[in-house]
Protein backbone atom coordinates (compact mmCIF):
# COMPACT_ATOMS: atom_id res chain seq x y z
CA UNK A 1 0.00 0.00 0.00
CA UNK A 2 1.23 3.51 -0.83
CA UNK A 3 0.82 6.10 1.91
CA UNK A 4 0.96 9.24 -0.21
CA UNK A 5 -2.83 9.51 0.11
CA UNK A 6 -2.46 9.91 3.89
CA UNK A 7 -1.53 13.56 3.46
CA UNK A 8 -3.25 16.19 1.40
CA UNK A 9 -1.67 19.42 0.07
CA UNK A 10 -1.86 20.91 3.56
CA UNK A 11 -0.13 17.89 5.15
CA UNK A 12 -3.29 16.96 7.06
CA UNK A 13 -4.47 13.41 7.60
CA UNK A 14 -6.84 12.05 4.96
CA UNK A 15 -10.01 11.51 7.00
CA UNK A 16 -11.64 9.21 4.44
CA UNK A 17 -8.66 6.89 4.64
CA UNK A 18 -8.82 6.91 8.43
CA UNK A 19 -12.45 5.84 8.33
CA UNK A 20 -11.61 3.04 5.89
CA UNK A 21 -8.73 1.83 8.04
CA UNK A 22 -9.11 2.77 11.73
CA UNK A 23 -5.67 1.44 12.68
CA UNK A 24 -4.03 4.09 10.47
CA UNK A 25 -3.78 6.55 13.37
CA UNK A 26 -2.07 3.86 15.49
CA UNK A 27 0.43 3.18 12.69
CA UNK A 28 1.31 6.89 12.46
CA UNK A 29 1.79 7.15 16.23
CA UNK A 30 4.03 4.08 16.40
CA UNK A 31 6.14 5.22 13.44
CA UNK A 32 6.60 8.66 15.00
CA UNK A 33 7.16 7.29 18.50
CA UNK A 34 10.22 5.29 17.52
CA UNK A 35 11.76 8.47 16.12
CA UNK A 36 11.19 10.24 19.44
CA UNK A 37 12.38 7.23 21.46
CA UNK A 38 14.31 4.64 19.42
CA UNK A 39 14.57 2.37 22.49
CA UNK A 40 10.90 1.50 21.88
CA UNK A 41 12.07 -0.84 19.12
CA UNK A 42 13.70 -3.06 21.75
CA UNK A 43 10.89 -2.60 24.26
CA UNK A 44 8.26 -3.71 21.75
CA UNK A 45 10.32 -6.67 20.48
CA UNK A 46 8.54 -9.98 20.97
CA UNK A 47 5.07 -8.46 21.16
CA UNK A 48 5.09 -6.43 17.94
CA UNK A 49 6.17 -7.19 14.38
CA UNK A 50 6.75 -4.09 12.19
CA UNK A 51 5.61 -6.19 9.22
CA UNK A 52 2.09 -5.72 10.63
CA UNK A 53 2.25 -2.00 9.73
CA UNK A 54 0.16 -2.05 6.56
CA UNK A 55 1.28 1.40 5.34
CA UNK A 56 4.47 0.89 3.33
CA UNK A 57 5.92 4.35 3.95
CA UNK A 58 5.16 4.29 7.67
CA UNK A 59 6.73 0.83 7.94
CA UNK A 60 9.89 2.15 6.26
CA UNK A 61 10.07 4.92 8.88
CA UNK A 62 10.41 2.15 11.49
CA UNK A 63 13.12 0.40 9.44
CA UNK A 64 15.03 3.66 8.96
CA UNK A 65 15.06 4.37 12.70
CA UNK A 66 16.14 0.78 13.34
CA UNK A 67 19.07 1.20 10.95
CA UNK A 68 20.14 4.61 12.27
CA UNK A 69 20.01 3.62 15.94
CA UNK A 70 22.83 1.12 15.45
CA UNK A 71 25.22 4.09 15.69
CA UNK A 72 23.18 5.98 18.29
CA UNK A 73 23.64 5.36 21.99
CA UNK A 74 20.81 7.52 23.30
CA UNK A 75 18.37 10.32 22.47
CA UNK A 76 15.88 10.85 19.69
CA UNK A 77 16.28 10.43 15.95
CA UNK A 78 14.79 13.48 14.29
CA UNK A 79 12.91 13.43 11.02
CA UNK A 80 15.80 14.92 9.03
CA UNK A 81 18.00 11.86 9.68
CA UNK A 82 15.14 9.51 8.86
CA UNK A 83 14.53 11.38 5.62
CA UNK A 84 18.20 11.12 4.61
CA UNK A 85 18.25 7.38 5.33
CA UNK A 86 15.14 6.70 3.27
CA UNK A 87 16.35 8.88 0.39
CA UNK A 88 19.62 6.91 0.32
CA UNK A 89 17.69 3.62 0.23
CA UNK A 90 15.43 4.94 -2.52
CA UNK A 91 18.43 5.99 -4.62
CA UNK A 92 19.75 2.41 -4.58
CA UNK A 93 16.27 0.91 -5.14
CA UNK A 94 16.50 -0.81 -1.76
CA UNK A 95 13.31 1.00 -0.71
CA UNK A 96 10.61 0.05 -3.24
CA UNK A 97 8.16 2.89 -2.44
CA UNK A 98 8.61 6.68 -2.50
CA UNK A 99 9.67 7.93 0.95
CA UNK A 100 7.65 10.50 2.85
CA UNK A 101 8.60 14.10 2.15
CA UNK A 102 10.56 16.05 4.76
CA UNK A 103 7.57 18.22 5.74
CA UNK A 104 5.38 15.10 6.06
CA UNK A 105 7.89 13.48 8.42
CA UNK A 106 8.05 16.68 10.46
CA UNK A 107 4.27 16.82 10.72
CA UNK A 108 4.11 13.13 11.65
CA UNK A 109 6.73 13.64 14.36
CA UNK A 110 4.99 16.64 15.89
CA UNK A 111 1.51 15.08 15.93
CA UNK A 112 2.63 11.98 17.81
CA UNK A 113 4.76 13.66 20.49
CA UNK A 114 2.03 13.61 23.18
CA UNK A 115 1.19 9.95 22.49
CA UNK A 116 4.50 8.12 22.28
CA UNK A 117 4.39 7.08 25.94
CA UNK A 118 1.43 4.85 24.99
CA UNK A 119 3.16 3.28 21.99
CA UNK A 120 2.63 -0.25 23.34
CA UNK A 121 -1.14 0.29 23.30
CA UNK A 122 -1.09 1.51 19.71
CA UNK A 123 1.23 -1.33 18.67
CA UNK A 124 -1.35 -3.77 20.06
CA UNK A 125 -4.04 -2.13 17.92
CA UNK A 126 -1.89 -2.64 14.83
CA UNK A 127 -1.27 -6.28 15.76
CA UNK A 128 -4.96 -6.99 16.28
CA UNK A 129 -5.82 -5.39 12.92
CA UNK A 130 -3.18 -7.55 11.22
CA UNK A 131 -4.58 -10.69 12.86
CA UNK A 132 -8.05 -9.72 11.63
CA UNK A 133 -6.71 -9.40 8.07
CA UNK A 134 -5.07 -12.82 8.26
CA UNK A 135 -8.26 -14.25 9.71
CA UNK A 136 -10.26 -12.97 6.73
CA UNK A 137 -7.62 -14.35 4.35
CA UNK A 138 -7.89 -17.71 6.08
CA UNK A 139 -11.63 -17.65 5.49
CA UNK A 140 -11.01 -17.09 1.79
CA UNK A 141 -8.55 -19.99 1.79
CA UNK A 142 -11.18 -22.22 3.38
CA UNK A 143 -13.67 -21.20 0.69
CA UNK A 144 -11.19 -21.95 -2.11
CA UNK A 145 -10.22 -25.33 -0.66
CA UNK A 146 -13.83 -26.32 -0.03
CA UNK A 147 -14.83 -25.55 -3.63
CA UNK A 148 -11.85 -27.32 -5.15
CA UNK A 149 -12.41 -30.65 -6.92
CA UNK A 150 -9.17 -31.82 -5.28
CA UNK A 151 -10.50 -31.16 -1.77
CA UNK A 152 -8.98 -33.65 0.71
CA UNK A 153 -10.78 -33.52 4.09
CA UNK A 154 -7.84 -34.96 6.02
CA UNK A 155 -5.08 -32.83 4.50
CA UNK A 156 -7.03 -29.61 3.93
CA UNK A 157 -8.75 -29.49 7.33
CA UNK A 158 -5.46 -30.28 9.07
CA UNK A 159 -3.76 -27.48 7.12
CA UNK A 160 -6.47 -25.00 8.13
CA UNK A 161 -6.26 -26.11 11.76
CA UNK A 162 -2.50 -25.55 11.71
CA UNK A 163 -2.97 -22.12 10.14
CA UNK A 164 -5.60 -21.20 12.72
CA UNK A 165 -3.33 -22.35 15.55
CA UNK A 166 -0.54 -20.16 14.18
CA UNK A 167 -2.99 -17.28 13.90
CA UNK A 168 -4.27 -17.36 17.47
CA UNK A 169 -1.11 -18.54 19.21
CA UNK A 170 0.23 -15.81 21.46
CA UNK A 171 3.34 -13.98 20.35
CA UNK A 172 6.41 -14.45 22.45
CA UNK A 173 6.05 -11.73 25.09
CA UNK A 174 8.73 -13.11 27.38
CA UNK A 175 11.55 -10.84 28.45
CA UNK A 176 14.80 -11.75 30.21
CA UNK A 177 14.58 -11.44 33.98
CA UNK A 178 17.31 -10.64 36.42
CA UNK A 179 18.09 -13.49 38.81
CA UNK A 180 17.22 -11.28 41.78
CA UNK A 181 13.61 -11.18 40.54
CA UNK A 182 13.16 -14.95 40.49
CA UNK A 183 15.44 -16.37 43.19
CA UNK A 184 12.68 -15.90 45.78
CA UNK A 185 10.59 -18.52 44.00
CA UNK A 186 13.44 -21.02 44.23
CA UNK A 187 13.77 -20.37 47.96
CA UNK A 188 10.04 -20.94 48.45
CA UNK A 189 10.07 -24.16 46.40
CA UNK A 190 12.97 -25.46 48.48
CA UNK A 191 10.78 -25.62 51.60
CA UNK A 192 7.40 -26.42 49.95
CA UNK A 193 6.51 -30.04 49.30
CA UNK A 194 4.97 -30.56 45.83
CA UNK A 195 1.37 -31.76 45.79
CA UNK A 196 -1.10 -33.01 43.20
CA UNK A 197 -1.77 -29.43 42.09
CA UNK A 198 1.67 -29.22 40.50
CA UNK A 199 2.51 -32.92 40.13
CA UNK A 200 0.79 -35.93 38.54
CA UNK A 201 1.41 -38.98 40.78
CA UNK A 202 2.36 -42.16 38.92
CA UNK A 203 0.85 -44.65 41.36
CA UNK A 204 4.27 -46.06 42.31
CA UNK A 205 5.85 -44.94 45.56
CA UNK A 206 9.48 -45.29 44.49
CA UNK A 207 8.87 -43.78 41.06
CA UNK A 208 7.10 -40.78 42.57
CA UNK A 209 10.03 -40.33 44.97
CA UNK A 210 12.53 -40.44 42.10
CA UNK A 211 10.49 -37.89 40.12
CA UNK A 212 10.11 -35.54 43.11
CA UNK A 213 6.41 -36.21 43.53
CA UNK A 214 5.43 -37.31 40.02
CA UNK A 215 5.26 -35.88 36.53
CA UNK A 216 5.40 -32.11 36.09
CA UNK A 217 3.36 -29.84 33.81
CA UNK A 218 5.01 -29.30 30.44
CA UNK A 219 6.87 -32.62 30.43
CA UNK A 220 6.95 -35.13 27.59
CA UNK A 221 7.33 -38.60 29.11
CA UNK A 222 8.14 -41.57 26.88
CA UNK A 223 7.31 -45.08 28.10
CA UNK A 224 8.85 -47.68 25.80
CA UNK A 225 9.03 -51.45 25.63
CA UNK A 226 9.18 -54.41 23.30
CA UNK A 227 5.81 -55.96 22.33
CA UNK A 228 4.07 -58.01 25.06
CA UNK A 229 5.90 -56.24 27.91
CA UNK A 230 2.71 -54.49 29.01
CA UNK A 231 3.27 -50.89 27.96
CA UNK A 232 -0.46 -50.34 27.31
CA UNK A 233 -1.24 -51.80 30.74
CA UNK A 234 1.40 -49.56 32.33
CA UNK A 235 0.05 -46.48 30.53
CA UNK A 236 -3.51 -47.26 31.56
CA UNK A 237 -2.23 -47.69 35.12
CA UNK A 238 -0.80 -44.17 35.03
CA UNK A 239 -4.19 -42.93 33.86
CA UNK A 240 -6.00 -44.76 36.65
CA UNK A 241 -3.61 -43.47 39.31
CA UNK A 242 -4.07 -39.88 38.19
CA UNK A 243 -7.82 -39.85 37.50
CA UNK A 244 -9.32 -42.43 39.88
CA UNK A 245 -7.02 -42.05 42.89
CA UNK A 246 -6.25 -38.33 42.64
CA UNK A 247 -9.08 -36.80 40.61
CA UNK A 248 -6.78 -35.39 37.92
CA UNK A 249 -8.57 -34.95 34.56
CA UNK A 250 -6.89 -37.44 32.21
CA UNK A 251 -7.24 -38.37 28.54
CA UNK A 252 -6.12 -41.81 27.30
CA UNK A 253 -5.74 -41.91 23.52
CA UNK A 254 -5.65 -45.51 22.33
CA UNK A 255 -4.75 -46.31 18.74
CA UNK A 256 -4.53 -50.02 19.51
CA UNK A 257 -7.28 -51.10 21.93
CA UNK A 258 -10.99 -50.39 21.55
CA UNK A 259 -13.08 -48.73 24.25
CA UNK A 260 -14.60 -52.03 25.40
CA UNK A 261 -11.17 -53.56 25.96
CA UNK A 262 -9.99 -50.43 27.75
CA UNK A 263 -13.03 -50.50 30.05
CA UNK A 264 -12.47 -54.21 30.77
CA UNK A 265 -8.87 -53.51 31.76
CA UNK A 266 -9.83 -50.61 34.03
CA UNK A 267 -12.54 -52.68 35.72
CA UNK A 268 -10.24 -55.68 36.25
CA UNK A 269 -7.47 -53.57 37.80
CA UNK A 270 -9.75 -51.55 40.07
CA UNK A 271 -11.89 -54.45 41.26
CA UNK A 272 -9.13 -57.09 41.25
CA UNK A 273 -11.34 -59.41 39.25
CA UNK A 274 -9.51 -61.59 36.74
CA UNK A 275 -9.52 -60.00 33.29
CA UNK A 276 -10.21 -63.27 31.50
CA UNK A 277 -13.29 -63.79 33.69
CA UNK A 278 -14.62 -60.38 32.67
CA UNK A 279 -13.95 -61.09 29.00
CA UNK A 280 -15.71 -64.46 29.12
CA UNK A 281 -18.63 -63.39 31.33
CA UNK A 282 -17.56 -65.79 34.08
CA UNK A 283 -17.41 -63.44 37.08
CA UNK A 284 -18.89 -64.99 40.24
CA UNK A 285 -21.05 -63.25 42.84
CA UNK A 286 -18.09 -62.21 44.97
CA UNK A 287 -16.42 -60.73 41.91
CA UNK A 288 -19.58 -58.88 40.93
CA UNK A 289 -19.71 -57.35 44.41
CA UNK A 290 -16.13 -56.15 44.06
CA UNK A 291 -16.92 -54.76 40.60
CA UNK A 292 -19.92 -52.86 41.94
CA UNK A 293 -17.81 -51.32 44.68
CA UNK A 294 -15.10 -50.33 42.21
CA UNK A 295 -17.59 -48.99 39.69
CA UNK A 296 -18.55 -46.09 41.94
CA UNK A 297 -14.91 -44.96 42.10
CA UNK A 298 -14.47 -45.42 38.36
CA UNK A 299 -17.60 -43.56 37.30
CA UNK A 300 -16.76 -40.57 39.51
CA UNK A 301 -13.26 -40.25 38.03
CA UNK A 302 -12.39 -37.64 35.37
CA UNK A 303 -10.96 -40.33 33.07
CA UNK A 304 -11.64 -39.95 29.35
CA UNK A 305 -10.93 -42.73 26.84
CA UNK A 306 -10.71 -42.32 23.08
CA UNK A 307 -10.17 -45.23 20.69
CA UNK A 308 -9.98 -43.31 17.41
CA UNK A 309 -8.29 -45.22 14.62
CA UNK A 310 -6.15 -42.22 13.68
CA UNK A 311 -4.49 -39.37 15.52
CA UNK A 312 -2.50 -36.43 14.16
CA UNK A 313 -0.96 -33.40 15.86
CA UNK A 314 -3.73 -31.02 14.68
CA UNK A 315 -6.45 -33.44 15.84
CA UNK A 316 -4.78 -33.86 19.23
CA UNK A 317 -4.23 -30.12 19.65
CA UNK A 318 -7.91 -29.37 19.04
CA UNK A 319 -9.02 -32.07 21.48
CA UNK A 320 -6.63 -30.95 24.19
CA UNK A 321 -7.62 -27.30 23.85
CA UNK A 322 -11.32 -28.21 24.08
CA UNK A 323 -10.82 -30.45 27.15
CA UNK A 324 -8.63 -27.94 28.97
CA UNK A 325 -11.37 -25.37 28.53
CA UNK A 326 -14.17 -27.71 29.58
CA UNK A 327 -12.76 -30.18 32.11
CA UNK A 328 -9.36 -28.79 33.13
CA UNK A 329 -7.33 -31.54 31.41
CA UNK A 330 -3.87 -32.10 32.93
CA UNK A 331 -2.62 -35.49 31.72
CA UNK A 332 -2.66 -37.03 28.22
CA UNK A 333 -1.46 -40.55 27.47
CA UNK A 334 -1.03 -41.74 23.87
CA UNK A 335 -0.86 -45.44 22.97
CA UNK A 336 1.30 -45.41 20.89
CA UNK A 337 3.83 -43.30 18.93
CA UNK A 338 4.36 -45.55 15.90
CA UNK A 339 0.61 -45.59 15.15
CA UNK A 340 0.22 -41.81 15.08
CA UNK A 341 -0.12 -39.88 11.81
CA UNK A 342 3.23 -38.14 11.47
CA UNK A 343 3.74 -34.87 9.56
CA UNK A 344 5.07 -35.42 6.07
CA UNK A 345 8.87 -35.22 5.77
CA UNK A 346 11.71 -36.49 3.63
CA UNK A 347 12.14 -39.72 5.64
CA UNK A 348 10.74 -41.59 8.63
CA UNK A 349 13.31 -40.21 11.05
CA UNK A 350 12.41 -36.65 10.07
CA UNK A 351 8.70 -37.47 10.43
CA UNK A 352 9.22 -38.80 13.96
CA UNK A 353 11.34 -35.76 14.79
CA UNK A 354 8.51 -33.42 13.77
CA UNK A 355 6.02 -35.53 15.69
CA UNK A 356 7.89 -35.70 19.00
CA UNK A 357 8.89 -32.04 18.79
CA UNK A 358 5.27 -31.11 18.19
CA UNK A 359 4.16 -33.17 21.19
CA UNK A 360 6.80 -31.60 23.45
CA UNK A 361 5.80 -28.09 22.39
CA UNK A 362 2.15 -28.99 22.95
CA UNK A 363 2.86 -30.17 26.51
CA UNK A 364 4.76 -26.98 27.25
CA UNK A 365 2.26 -24.67 25.56
CA UNK A 366 -0.79 -26.09 27.36
CA UNK A 367 0.99 -26.78 30.66
CA UNK A 368 0.03 -30.46 30.74
CA UNK A 369 1.92 -33.73 31.14
CA UNK A 370 1.99 -35.78 27.94
CA UNK A 371 2.92 -39.47 28.22
CA UNK A 372 3.82 -41.12 24.93
CA UNK A 373 4.00 -44.91 24.71
CA UNK A 374 6.44 -46.25 22.13
CA UNK A 375 7.89 -49.49 20.81
CA UNK A 376 11.55 -50.43 21.07
CA UNK A 377 13.49 -51.98 18.22
CA UNK A 378 14.94 -55.50 18.41
CA UNK A 379 18.07 -54.36 20.20
CA UNK A 380 17.22 -56.01 23.57
CA UNK A 381 16.68 -59.39 21.95
CA UNK A 382 20.20 -59.30 20.53
CA UNK A 383 21.77 -58.95 23.99
CA UNK A 384 22.31 -61.71 26.51
CA UNK A 385 20.43 -60.06 29.39
CA UNK A 386 17.66 -58.71 27.08
CA UNK A 387 17.52 -55.46 29.07
CA UNK A 388 16.48 -52.42 27.02
CA UNK A 389 18.47 -49.22 26.58
CA UNK A 390 17.30 -45.74 25.64
CA UNK A 391 19.16 -46.19 22.36
CA UNK A 392 16.75 -49.04 21.50
CA UNK A 393 14.00 -46.55 20.82
CA UNK A 394 12.96 -46.66 17.19
CA UNK A 395 14.17 -43.45 15.53
CA UNK A 396 15.73 -42.89 18.97
CA UNK A 397 17.59 -39.65 18.25
CA UNK A 398 14.51 -37.42 18.01
CA UNK A 399 12.54 -39.24 20.72
CA UNK A 400 15.38 -39.19 23.24
CA UNK A 401 16.16 -35.55 22.51
CA UNK A 402 12.61 -34.27 22.98
CA UNK A 403 11.63 -36.42 25.98
CA UNK A 404 12.08 -35.06 29.50
CA UNK A 405 11.76 -38.58 30.94
CA UNK A 406 12.28 -41.95 29.26
CA UNK A 407 10.95 -45.04 31.05
CA UNK A 408 11.75 -48.51 29.72
CA UNK A 409 9.81 -51.61 30.76
CA UNK A 410 11.44 -55.03 31.12
CA UNK A 411 10.16 -58.40 32.34
CA UNK A 412 12.56 -61.33 32.41
CA UNK A 413 9.76 -63.91 32.32
CA UNK A 414 8.75 -62.76 28.83
CA UNK A 415 11.99 -64.35 27.59
CA UNK A 416 12.41 -67.06 30.25
CA UNK A 417 9.25 -68.61 31.67
CA UNK A 418 11.30 -70.33 34.40
CA UNK A 419 13.00 -67.13 35.52
CA UNK A 420 13.32 -66.75 39.31
CA UNK A 421 12.01 -63.21 38.77
CA UNK A 422 8.72 -64.37 37.26
CA UNK A 423 6.00 -61.82 37.98
CA UNK A 424 8.49 -58.98 38.46
CA UNK A 425 8.87 -56.01 36.15
CA UNK A 426 11.68 -53.47 35.96
CA UNK A 427 10.66 -49.87 35.45
CA UNK A 428 13.91 -48.42 34.11
CA UNK A 429 14.13 -44.62 34.23
CA UNK A 430 16.77 -44.28 31.52
CA UNK A 431 16.56 -40.50 31.13
CA UNK A 432 15.46 -37.93 33.67
CA UNK A 433 16.20 -34.37 32.65
CA UNK A 434 15.44 -32.95 36.09
CA UNK A 435 17.02 -35.59 38.29
CA UNK A 436 18.59 -39.03 38.76
CA UNK A 437 17.92 -42.24 36.86
CA UNK A 438 17.24 -45.60 38.48
CA UNK A 439 15.67 -49.04 38.12
CA UNK A 440 12.50 -49.62 40.13
CA UNK A 441 11.18 -53.14 40.63
CA UNK A 442 7.42 -53.59 40.46
CA UNK A 443 5.04 -56.56 40.25
CA UNK A 444 3.25 -57.35 37.00
CA UNK A 445 -0.21 -58.81 37.56
CA UNK A 446 -1.34 -59.57 34.05
CA UNK A 447 -4.49 -61.32 35.19
CA UNK A 448 -5.59 -58.05 36.80
CA UNK A 449 -4.18 -55.88 33.96
CA UNK A 450 -1.90 -53.89 36.22
CA UNK A 451 1.59 -53.14 37.50
CA UNK A 452 1.77 -52.54 41.27
CA UNK A 453 4.37 -51.70 43.90
CA UNK A 454 6.12 -54.82 45.21
CA UNK A 455 4.95 -54.00 48.74
CA UNK A 456 1.28 -54.39 47.83
CA UNK A 457 1.54 -57.23 45.30
SSE order and pairing:
Layout: H1 15-20, H2 24-36, H3 40-43, H4 56-68, H5 79-91, H6 102-112, H7 119-147, H8 153-168, H9 179-190, H10 205-210, E1 220-225, H11 231-246, E2 250-254, H12 259-271, H13 275-280, H14 285-300, E3 303-306, H15 313-327, E4 331-335, H16 348-366, E5 369-375, H17 396-402, E6 405-410, E7 424-432, E8 438-445, E9 450-453
Parallel strand pairs: 1-5, 1-6, 2-3, 2-4, 4-5
Antiparallel strand pairs: 6-7, 7-8, 8-9
Helix pairs in contact: 2-4, 2-6, 2-7, 4-5, 5-6, 7-8, 11-12, 12-14, 15-16, 16-17
Helix residue percentage: 40-55%
H/I helix tally: 17
Q: Which structural category fits the helices and strands?
A: alpha/beta
Global outline: elongated
- Please report which band the strand proportion falls in: under 5%, 5-15%, 15-25%, 25-35%, 35-45% or over 45%: 5-15%
Average predicted local confidence, pLDDT: 83
Separation, N- and C-terminal Cα atoms: 73 Å
Rg value: 30 Å
Spatial order of strands in the largest sheet: 3-2-4-5-1-6-7-8-9
Low-confidence residue ranges: 7-19
Mind summarizing the main beta sheet? 9 strands, mixed
Amino acid sequence: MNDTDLWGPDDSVGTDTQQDRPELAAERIVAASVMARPALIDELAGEFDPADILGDQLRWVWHAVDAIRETLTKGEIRWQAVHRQMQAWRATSYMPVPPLELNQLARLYDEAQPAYSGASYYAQQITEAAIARRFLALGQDISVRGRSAAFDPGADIAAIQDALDDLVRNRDTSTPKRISDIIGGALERSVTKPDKNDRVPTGFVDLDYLLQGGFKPGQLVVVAARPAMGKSTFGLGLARAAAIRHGIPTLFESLEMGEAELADNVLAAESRVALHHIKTGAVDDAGVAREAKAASRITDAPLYLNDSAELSLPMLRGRIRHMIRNVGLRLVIIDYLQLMDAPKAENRQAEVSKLTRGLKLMAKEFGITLVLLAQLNRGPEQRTDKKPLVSDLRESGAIEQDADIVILLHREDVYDKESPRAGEADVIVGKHRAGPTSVITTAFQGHYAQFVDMAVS
